[in-house]
Amino acid sequence: MAFGDPHYRTFDGRLLHFQGSCSYVLAKDCRGADFSVHVTNNDRGRSGVAWTQEVAVLLGEVAVRLLQGGGVTVDGRPVALPFLQEPLLYVERRGGTVILHAQPGLQVLWDGQSQVEVSVPGSYRGQICGLCGNFNGFAQDDLQGPEGLLLPTEAAFGNSWQVPEGPGPGRPCSKGREVDPCRAAGYRARREANARCGVLKSSPFSRCHTVVPPEPFFAACVYDLCACGPGSLADTCLCDALEAYASHCRQAGATPAWRGPTLCVVGCPLDRGYVFDECGPPCPRTCFNQHVPLGELSAHCVRPCIPGCQCPAGLVEHEAHCIPPEACPPVLLTGDQPPRDLLSPSQEPRGAP
């Protein structure tokens, strides 16, 4: 996982800070070359720090790019979601998250801003490399470079995974270096960052503390707020850090109800019937799948739940609106209709933080 400015949580659970603003291998099948996931970072005009700008997923000869704002291109061409290229690739949007599924069992989730999660099946254990580590069950040896050697610092490790493509000739990138933004920002900034990030250790997240220790995410949050400085950017950085922790909590089976009227509010189009749900179904009911048995529908879902704009109970989604099931148009099922068409959700609006 990559989040914030940016931090990398490896497959084996180690949290790294790396601030290079070039392009890097995030996770790669270094044995069979089934896939490679790259990230391109951007400093957003602030020296010494960076954020994930976009994600590239390479699947053989197919190149998928996940862009800022949630746009997607396949082999350089913009595509509308959901997008299916059998048998290799399926890309969909759920809530504010773009989800890529690939044939080897690879799954990539991109929030369209700065957070990306990569998951692979256990069959890849010990054959992954890149900024997400080697997936061998031991966090101690995650700082391995492309040659398989352990590197002395997180900056050296991150720079070793740089790949040629980058922001382009007009925007030269910068290598990562060891930085302490809180030391540069001063005591007052560190104190304020500690206070604001304290919500991670408070009651809204209490149900998660026993399954996902908050301390590494608290440290990353403080780091980010010192780096982001005052103003609205600090609010964005705080929400990124809190959502990263909440995401790990959801994966561990604990869903914190942490958002508030003034904390990381997500706006949903109420005029079309949507409401925000911290733990909504990744495969909600639509006019096309409302008759599919729930168990079969759930079998095609990627995770227990995701945050985002959802239709309330009793309504189904159709053409970016929530409507009663009886208002759905007739659906003609034919013998040659792909079952995935029934299981794929329709397009729905993204909530604006």
TrEMBL record:
Gene3D superfamilies: Laminin (2.10.25.10). One of its GO terms (cellular component) is extracellular region. Residues 1-174 form the VWFD domain. It holds the Pfam family TIL. GO terms for biological process: positive regulation of BMP signaling pathway. Its main location: secreted. It is found in: Secreted. Signal peptide: none annotated. InterPro entries: Kielin_Chordin-BMP_Reg, Ser_inhib-like_sf, TIL_dom, VWF/SSPO/ZAN-like_Cys-rich_dom, VWF_type-D. PROSITE patterns: VWFD. Keywords: Disulfide bond, Secreted, Signal. The keyword Coiled coil does not apply. Transmembrane segments: none annotated. PANTHER family: CROSSVEINLESS 2, KIELIN_CHORDIN-LIKE PROTEIN. This is Kielin cysteine rich BMP regulator. It comes from Molossus molossus.
